[in-house]
């Protein structure tokens, strides 16, 4: 989760988020090289005294500054397309979770199990414990097993919401009257937070998302305890 003065990406908990982080670093390195090169060219143009008022064309330099941006875009587009298709691919999921957005809470339904439905509200500040996270803790967190492919089916009952877990690289809109789906894979245990990422009304900032990632045997015990 993000903490105070944390300006970089959150630590990844899924292979997809690792790929997104690598792509971010790859793109930023290319942008840094372009920025440095442009600054050097501008600086040398300002300090040199050479002019050529008879220069009409330069086919070689025109060829270079046409091919170079095209090659740069290819280096950015290829990994981007790969990650785009990885995000849309949904192989055989181990668990399907249906999440419905409301003003202003989330409800969850684990359709692979019988009668597993619950609502998840933000814990009020006056009921939080000393170790709780303000505006992030909920009364009923979503418990999921790690090392399992999770399929999320997202919808809404009123306005557009957005179900988001940044550390898993998941962000999908909850649209009224429509089912959107995505999948993710968590490779470590822990508690991970997200928030509604679509402005949905007065209490938009008070509908957090909390996921607890546990081992599959403990997940089965949690299901039986409901």
Describe the model:
This protein has 3 helices and 10 strands, in the order ααββββββββββα. The chain has 226 residues and is an alpha+beta fold. The chain folds into 2 domains: 15-49 and 57-88; 95-225, Sandwich (Immunoglobulin-like). The strands form 3 sheets. The chain has a 5-stranded mixed sheet with strand order 3-2-1-5-8, with no helix packed on it. β2 (105-110) and β3 (117-120) form a beta hairpin. The model has no long low-confidence stretch (mean pLDDT 88).
State the gist of this model.
The protein is α+β, with helices and mostly antiparallel strands. The chain is built from three helices and ten strands. Helix content is 32%, strand content 26%.
Which structural class do the helices and strands define? alpha+beta
Q: Low-confidence parts lasting 5 or more residues at pLDDT below 50? A: none
Mean pLDDT: 88
Judging by the overall fold, what is the CATH architecture of the largest domain? Sandwich
Task: Please state the CA-atom Rg, rounded to the nearest Å.
Answer: 24 Å
CATH class of the largest domain: Mainly Beta
N-to-C SSE string, H for helix and E for strand: HHEEEEEEEEEEH
Features:
Immunoglobulin-like, 226 residues, alpha+beta, five-stranded mixed beta sheet, 2 domains, 26% strand
Spell out the blueprint of helices and strands.
Elements: H1 15-47, H2 59-88, E1 95-102, E2 105-110, E3 117-120, E4 142-145, E5 149-156, E6 161-165, E7 170-174, E8 180-185, E9 190-195, E10 208-214, H3 216-225
Parallel strand pairs: 1-5, 4-10
Antiparallel strand pairs: 1-2, 2-3, 5-8, 6-7, 9-10
Helix pairs in contact: 1-2
Subcellular location: Mitochondrion inner membrane
Membrane topology: Multi-pass membrane protein
Domain Cytochrome oxidase subunit II transmembrane region profile: 1-91
